[in-house]
Design goal:
By secondary structure, the chain is mainly β. Helices cover 2% and strands 42% of the residues. It contains one helix and 18 strands. Strand 1 and strand 2 form a beta hairpin. The radius of gyration is 25 Å and the shape is elongated.
Length: 280
């Protein structure tokens, strides 16, 4: 990694936010030895590396593996000099897009590096994904640096109402071709217990009856259910009803569904209810 001082003969790039003239003169030069730790010549060939100052900032490297075997790594850094919004000199825009890609979303722009001044249970970092082809993709943790052992890192899939802990396993999702700029985000707590499930779960119950091969809605308060949808664990929609009759007990037949775990999502007049069920 580069350090503060640029050694003699080292190439570098400059990017300006506005048009201006850049001047260099001898007054800007400082005598710093490369082996002192604050100046390091970066080479593409193997060479003996000088020591560098330790970087104690937390770094979270999120990886994306696409249906076309494309990999992208994003960096999230904790730095007290920055904010959750764009910070000049810290955050880096996507330089070149791949056929499938993932990026941080900051003010509708797409970044590969984002810095923020605080990471806690209330922190939310929006993610964007684009895919050229339909298929299975996954989001993973590539690497953690200086992160507390008890820090949980979740992908929140807002469409499926899923909080998936990336420290336990990768999040696999089947996506159709296209852009998803407001569906995914990184969080540091599982907020599913304080969503609509908690608010309406006592008034409307949904479960899967293996004996009847049906989704059963127990609706004693006659809450209006606008739609019902069932997803497999890859996020593929396998059943959707845009009209559900309002009555005490409703059965939705699922005779041809294979054995496995599924997610049922109900949109109601009071909010959205999701439930994970096991089909045996």
């Amino acid at each position: 990694s580069p350090t503060r001082y640029i050694p003699v003969g080292q190439a570098f790039f400059i990017r300006s936010q506005t048009g201006a003239t850049i001047k260099f003169n001898n007054g800007q030069r400082v005598f710093i030895k490369e082996n002192g730790g604050e100046s390091k010549f970066l080479r593409s060939t193997n060479s003996k590396e000088s020591s560098v100052n330790a970087d104690t900032r937390m770094k979270i490297r999120i990886g994306f593996n696409s249906v076309n075997n494309i990999h992208r790594q994003l960096l999230l850094t904790l730095d007290s000099n920055t904010t959750p919004d764009f910070d000049w000199g810290y955050d880096a825009l996507v330089y070149e897009f791949q056929i499938d890609d993932i990026f941080w979303m900051i003010n509708n722009d797409k970044y590969v590096i984002q810095s923020t001044n605080e990471i806690n249970s209330e922190t939310i970092i929006p993610l964007g994904i684009k895919t050229r082809d339909e298929g299975l993709n996954n989001i993973t943790i590539d690497n953690l640096e200086n992160a507390p052992e008890d820090l949980d890192i979740y992908v929140h899939d807002k469409e499926l109402y899923i909080y998936h802990n990336l420290k336990e396993s990768n999040y696999e999702i089947n996506l159709r071709a296209g852009e998803y700029l407001d569906r995914f985000e990184i969080t540091f707590k599982n907020a599913s217990l304080i969503t609509d499930n908690f608010k309406i779960g006592t008034e409307l119950q949904v479960y899967f009856s293996n004996e009847r091969k049906s989704i059963v809605l127990n609706n004693p308060n006659l809450i209006t259910v606008e739609s019902a949808e069932m997803f497999n664990i890859l996020g593929q929609s396998i059943l959707k009803l845009d009209e559900v009759k309002t009555k005490n007990i409703t059965e939705i037949s699922t005779k041809h569904i294979n054995v496995g775990s599924y997610i049922i999502k109900l949109k109601t007049e009071q909010g959205t209810l999701t439930k994970k069920v096991l089909v045996q």
